[in-house]
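Input record (one chain):
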Amino acid sequence: MGYETVQAFVSEGATVALMDIKDELGQQAAEQANSQGSGNAKFYHANVSDRSEVESAFAEAVEDMDGLDVLVNVAGVQRRKAAEDFTNEDLDFILDINCAGRLSQTRPLSKPCATLGVPFLTSGRMPVCHRCHC
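The corresponding structure, as predicted from the sequence alone:
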């Protein structure tokens, strides 16, 4: 789902900062999107469960792109197994990515959006799209 979202934005001419923990796949996704669209995608390494990595990647992307207009958060994981087979590690992994990761990605935008009076939206069940000129 993440790659398709990047590809859709790049095909419409957008400049996209693609972030992932998987460097090789992220770089390949950016290159493939760039070869098929009029926009531009650039890959940045970030483990969404690590707040400092996300903040660093955001700072670099905002500088490279001379601002940020939209954040689409499609990071998410799941574990397919019976409830009795779930371990604490499974739950921690899911919560780190799906909950803490979402917060880590939206935090860098909250202050600039509030300063500019731009609405700040979030969702727990869908890709998150934030509109913010920062």
